[in-house]
Design goal:
With 151 residues, the chain is α/β, with parallel strands linked by helices. The protein has helices at residues 2-5, 7-12, 19-38, 58-65, 78-88, 97-103, 124-135; strands at 48-52, 70-74, 91-93, 109-115, 136-145.
Length: 151
């Protein structure tokens, strides 16, 4: 309930994606693409992406423009998930990663993106192990970003 309705308001100060927010996601997607290419993954060879915490869907939309056809997003915020579905015609689940994994045991992904998500998981090690064991193809890449706060 908190993540579905209040987290984005508390964290971002908005309950609906702004143009600036979507542009920022697109910029981060281009940086992720460059990072992946610099590290041996040609995005043109990727056919499936799971973006956990996909927000407004900007990164998935970018990867679609690169030719990726199977794009799945998980976004607990109802409004941001609705925006991604309506604005970018994306398959976005309004749920948690744990629940998605429990309900989608037959899916496999070439690339899993987790930006600012791991710190929200109840048992990150278990979730990452489950992702690796059941949901990633053998040559899958996990692109993760963890928020760093100054004390």
């Amino acid at each position: 309930m908190f993540y579905q309705h209040f987290y984005k308001i508390f964290f971002r100060g908005e309950d609906w994606p702004s143009v600036r927010h979507v542009e920022n996601q697109n910029r981060k997607a281009r940086l992720a693409d460059k990072y992946l290419r610099d590290n041996g993954l040609d995005i043109n060879q990727v056919s499936s992406v799971l973006d956990v915490g996909c927000s407004a869907g900007g990164m998935l939309d970018y990867f679609r423009s690169c030719g990726v056809s199977n794009l799945i997003g998980i976004e607990p915020s109802v409004n941001f998930a609705e925006f991604a579905r309506n604005e970018f015609n994306l398959e976005v689940y309004t749920t948690t990663l744990e629940d998605f994994l429990d309900e989608n045991v037959d899916r496999k992904f070439d690339l899993v993106i987790m930006r600012d998500v791991i710190e929200h998981l109840l048992d990150p090690k278990k979730v990452l192990n489950t992702l690796q064991k059941y949901y990633m193809i053998s040559q899958c890449y996990l692109l993760k970003q963890i928020m760093c706060l100054k004390a």
